[in-house]
Design a protein that fits this description.
Strand order of the largest sheet: 6-5-11-7-9
Largest sheet: 5 strands, mixed
Strand content: 25-35%
Shape: elongated
Low-confidence stretches: none
Distance between the termini: 53 Å
Structural class: alpha/beta
Helix content: 10-25%
Number of helices: 5
Length: 185
Amino acid sequence: MPPSCLAIDLLYYAKPNEHLLVHKLRDYAKHIAQFNFKLLSRTNDGDITPYLAHYGKSHWMVCGPYSLYHQVAQSAELIDVSLSSEHFMAAPLPENNDNGCIEQLTVKHNNSAITVDNKQSLLTQLHDANIPVNYGCGMGICHQCQCVKKRGIVRDTRTGELSDNAEQLIQLCVSQAITDLELQA
């Protein structure tokens, strides 16, 4: 089939009602007969694996977090489908101190206070404590989990860089507590 006749089927995962450029996708589908798309979310539609079986004779391309890539790659291998990919994953968390000890610290977030450690990301620990915070990719790319650090010091897990004690904008997913903190959504 000539390239101009190849069908393109897009399975677009995002959080419910947070798909971007949907109007453009609808416009493409309206004007390009070979283009189709589905708006999906893990919350409403589950994992991607059941959707992939419909595209067994196609070349697959996947872009997204490693967990999505891994599911698609496993399915592609099972049914012998060619796959191109671009995926990303969170950087490993660096050690916070020379002795490797886990320290317990207090984080005040809006009207809540929790105890956290200096090893996990703030986002992970706020989620574990059932404190509602905005988040997106969970690895420092989308900036959905930004909040204001009113006081305290955090470490950026990507660079190891320490913040100062002053007020500043931080990303919860790539920040570890180094001192007690006060955060504001």
